[in-house]
Design brief:
Keywords: Signal. By secondary structure, this protein is mostly beta strands. The protein is built from six helices and 30 strands. The longest helix is centred in the first third of the chain and has 17 residues, at about 10-25.
Amino acid sequence: MKRTFLNIKTFAAIILTASLMTACSSEDDTVVTPEPDTEEPETEEPEEPRWITVAAAKMGDNPGDGNGGTLIYSVTSDDAKDPAVSIAPFENGFIAPSNRTARLQSSEDGNTIFNISYAGDTGGNYTKYTVEGGQTFTPSGSEVSIAPYVGTAPRWIKLFDGDQTGAAVYVNTENEFDENDNYTRTEATIGVVTLDLVNSSIKEFQEHSVALSDEEEANGYYISRIDMPTLNEAGDKLYIGARLSKVDPATAESDSDYEILGSKTIILDYPSLLNPSVITSTVGHGNTNGYRSINSFEYNGSVYQANQSDPEGSYILKIGADNEYDNTYDFNLDDALGIEGAYILAWRPAANGKAVLAYRHDGSAEGVAGAQGFFALVDLNAKTAVKIDAIPYDPDFYLFQYQGFVVDGTEIYLTQGAVGENGNIYVVETETGEVTKGAELVNVAGSHFIGVF
């Protein structure tokens, strides 16, 4: 606690002033007594530590597959920064309901965890929990299923609107043929549902056929996967990331050797979810749907979006307030890091425009569960990226399924730990780049950590 002390020179000046006032008043026998200072000394209240919830994915059949379920365990931010603290979610954690890896989100203050179960009999069930420390996550409110709208394995995200709304999406595709049985195009029908996170109820649902250009469709391109809805600053448009696939128009069979088109995003009016349109980047190529982690964020009036599977390595793309790609913004991770084949796995910016980014590249070692991952500190304004060397790396450090970072002011929390090995929480001060090694994370064979919330 910051305490305010009375300066000795100030104290002496008060005594001297009081003496002079008494001396001057002797001419008329009036004694002037200074008013007592009744104001309390100013103090600064210490910041309350927030909850940091560690998420751990248990092995199913193979090391690192995460299909054995998800366990969560919470500690205070003070304990999360303390390397003397040991956290063992696989032994002591709360089992987040999900047949496979749970799709978790947290409130901005860390006091609530939101979960939509993925696959199985409970797939699509939305639940929320009050975080109370350790393995104690108390159910809050009622459950609701979004399975009737987007299926039992939904791709969903919490919108950044003050923890009010979640959005889930799906896409169905069907090849179309003319009367002579010649392929014409692939119909892509998307569904979008918004969920009231406070009252556990459905807000809106819409389905749309989303077309590409006539030339693109004639060549067999179609939208095959969508994910990661993001609100613009004005709150009147919803951006949805998209992956393109292709068939051979001559045979209607899947085509895996094709030209990668410019990155695309579907735009809907919000909150109505009407009037779909598609915008295309001329800077980045490849997919914008991401995977397990949020792939795009609103910052300073624009939305910044990562892309994946770009032949030039991943870019961070910019969508301006005019709801179009800003093709003057050119931020390529290969160029920034001096590597080849960068692939952004997950990322999260703080309010200062500096972000922590998980990635792999062509030089990553092949580990037990896939390519080795790394973290970088990114500056969206300067368009720079620097590998965070203070975090230890291992060939089995696998980040493809990484889900969550915690942003607390200018600090960003993350988890580190190779598959089947113990690790730690790390805290990156984005303003200075300083890295703090925090609490130990105790692992079990074949399992891994997928982030903090």
